[in-house]
Amino acid sequence: MLRRRVFGVAYRYRGTAFGEIVRDAADRGAQAIIVACPMCHSNLDMRRQAIDSYLRRRIDVPVLYVTQAIGLAVGLSPRSWASNAISFPSPSN
Predict the structure, then answer these.
(1) What is the dihedral of CA 5, 58, 63, 36, to 10 degrees?
(2) How far is the C-alpha of 25 from the C-alpha of 50, rounded, in Å?
(3) Which residues, 6 or more positions from 77, have their beta carbon under 8 angstroms from its beta carbon?
(4) Measured between alpha carbons, how far is 69 from 63 in angstroms, rounded to an integer?
(5) Contacts of 92 (CB under 8 A, 6+ apart)
(6) What is the crossing angle of helices 38-46 and 48-55, to 10°?
(7) Per-residue pLDDT tens for 49-82?
(8) pTM for the complete prediction?
(9) What is the pLDDT of residues 5-36, one digit of tens each?
(10) pLDDT of residue 80
(11) 41 Cα distance to chain centroid
(12) Nearest to 21 by CA among 4, 5, 37
């Protein structure tokens, strides 16, 4: 696990804090994790491989920015506004 120093404080990243957020959401039955912070979105969405490695399991809860969630709520198709960088896990049926 990599360690970084921010303001003189060492912390682990990539899996630990982000992994706990994803695990908590999955354990509570969340259908999505909705964030309002662009940095939170990128950390939770784009670091999914490191998070899954930390958790030792794959969790398919998508991470959406608040405007994306609003788009879904008003009936827009993800294909009409989603970029290729956003992860939408396929159903595991």
Answers:
(1) -30
(2) 17
(3) none
(4) 9
(5) 60
(6) 60
(7) 888 888 899 999 999 989 888 988 998 887 776 6
(8) 0.69
(9) 544 444 455 567 888 899 999 999 999 999 99
(10) 72
(11) 6
(12) 37
